[in-house]
Structures are given as C-alpha cells and as structure tokens.
Amino acid sequence: KLGDYYTNFVMNFERAMTYYQRAVALAHEVGNSGREAVFLSLIGLLKSKQGFDEADIYLENAYQLAKSGTDDLCLCTVLEQRGYAEGIRGNYQKAREALEEALEVITRLSTLNVLSHTEIERRRFYSMLNLGEAEYELGSFEKAIETRQRALLIAEQQGNQVWIGYAHYELGDTYHRTDNRNLAREHMNLALQLFEQNNATRDVEAV
Q: What is the 3-class SS of the chain, one letter each residue?
C-alpha cells in the first residue's frame, strides 16, 4: 500500500521502489509466490514508467512465477500490469499477448466466485480498453474498433458513465485514424458530454 501511495499520489518512484522491494522479500520469506509475483510485476511497471530496460526482467520473472502457481487472481493482476507496462514501452505485440491471456484468466475467475461481478467487469473493461490500444498501435484498426466496442458494451451494461466516455473517446480516436471523420466526431462529442457531466476535468482536457 505504501508503494502504491508513493507511486500514484506522491510520485516518488524511488521511495515506492523501496517499499515494493521490501514487499517482494517479505512475500518470498513467507512463501507467498502469488504476492511475490504481483510485487515483482509492480516493480517492472514502475521501471517501465521510468524507461529502464531492466523492466523486462521483472515483468518476465513475475509472469513465470505467477504462471507456475495456482492463484489465478495473482496471475490476472500480473498479466494486466504487464499488458499496460509493455504498452508504455512500445512493445505492443507483447502487450496484446499479455492482455489476451488476461482476458482468458478473467473468464476463468468469473466462474470461481472469488471476485464480485463488478470487479470482474472492471478488470474485463480495462483489459479490453488496453488491448484495443495495442491493436490500434499495431495497425489492426478493425480489431481495435471491435475490441473497443466490446469495452463500450461492458461499460453500458455496468452503467458507468466515465467508462462509457473512455470507450467513446478511444473509438473516436480510431475512427479519426481511419479517416471516418463523421463517426470520429460523433464518438468524441459523446465522450466530451459524459466527461463534462461527471466532472472528469482531465478527461475533458484530453478531448
């Protein structure tokens, strides 16, 4: 928790790294390989944000450790983080692979009653959204549109207006890239309206 605090709120990455490394050591000491994998993955994500090449070592070690265990929740978290981290690093094929596997694990988790339906759909939505970004960057625009439409459907089913806005924004961006200006404008306007209605100031500025 302290690592997350220093990463997300204080933006002190060095301090965050210290807490994550301590968490890795503690998880290893008590034999909790799932938690160890998650914290290794967080270190890899943090190093990705900092642009350090050794991020790949942490991300791969985290994946192998999580994959060798039986905790699908930890594996899912590691895959979600890897997908996001590889996207930051511009490794979009690796991001695609990680996120596709994450979605498979999410489907398994949905049958185990270890997470609420809302949490399952949250994970599915963001994995879909990030997968759409990977497809977009790989030039697979039809797949990007299909994936982002699936994310939009999840958002609408959950009644989450901000998520709906995110999906419309990403769809608008994709349609703009494929020179479908009318659809791009339609989705961007819908995203803007939702962000304004929900006081999502940063998102309004992005549009």
A: CHHHHHHHCCCCHHHHHHHHHHHHHHHHHCCCHHHHHHHHHHHHHHHHHHCCCCHHHHHHHHHHHHHCCCCHHHHHHHHHHHHHHHHHCCCHHHHHHHHHHHHHHHHHHCCCCCCCHHHHHHHHHHHHHHHHHHHHHCCCHHHHHHHHHHHHHHHHHHCCHHHHHHHHHHHHHHHHHCCCHHHHHHHHHHHHHHHHHCCCHHHHHHC
Confidence band of 158 (pLDDT split at 50, 70, 90): very high
Give mean pLDDT, residues 18-38: 92
Q: How far is CA 10 from the centre of its chain?
A: 21
**How far apart, in whole angstroms, are the C-alpha atoms of residue 38 and residue 59?**
10
Instruction: Give the position of tokens 């089913």.
Output: 157
Q: For residues 44 and 62, is the Cβ–Cβ distance under 8 A?
A: yes
Measure the CA–CA gap between 15 and 100, rounded to whole angstroms: 32
pTM: 0.89
Percent of the chain with pLDDT over 90: 80
C-alpha–C-alpha distance, residues 187 and 55, integer Å = 35
